[in-house]
């Protein structure tokens, strides 16, 4: 298995850029099109767990104002051969000091690259190793 296929890195970089632009502009239809349209698709958000493309689409349509504006701090793209890959990024929401994280598993389908699984979280104020024990 090859974890650094150059063509896959280029394709996933383009897809990740498309996702970030659509997210920033709250283009719901474009975001929907980037997700695999099946019941297997999963998105764990900061405050919700969504199963299937229909739940994910409904969430986006019901979220007032779209996603909070953010700045990407770091992005890592890891191809898994030429048919799958993971895009991991750190971000900071505008006006916040906390770091957010997003991981997306992309699959290469006959209709192009699609997100099969996504996870978004905001880091705790301090690492678990620095918290007092209970």
TrEMBL record:
It holds the Pfam family AtzH-like. InterPro entries: AtzH-like, NTF2-like_dom_sf. It comes from the Bacteria. This is DUF4440 domain-containing protein. It comes from Acetobacter okinawensis.
């Amino acid at each position: 298995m090859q974890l650094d296929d150059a063509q896959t890195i280029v394709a996933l970089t383009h897809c990740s850029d498309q996702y970030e632009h659509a997210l920033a502009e709250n283009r719901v239809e474009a975001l929907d099109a980037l997700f695999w349209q099946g019941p297997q698709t999963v998105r764990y958000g900061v405050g919700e767990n969504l199963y299937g493309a229909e739940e994910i689409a409904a969430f986006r349509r019901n979220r007032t104002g779209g996603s909070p504006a953010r700045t990407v701090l770091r992005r890592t793209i890891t191809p898994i051969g030429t048919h799958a890959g993971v895009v991991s990024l750190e971000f900071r929401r505008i006006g916040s000091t906390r770091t957010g994280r997003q991981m997306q598993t992309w699959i290469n389908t006959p209709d192009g690259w699609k997100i099969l699984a996504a996870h978004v979280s905001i880091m705790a104020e301090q690492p678990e190793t620095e918290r007092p024990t209970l």
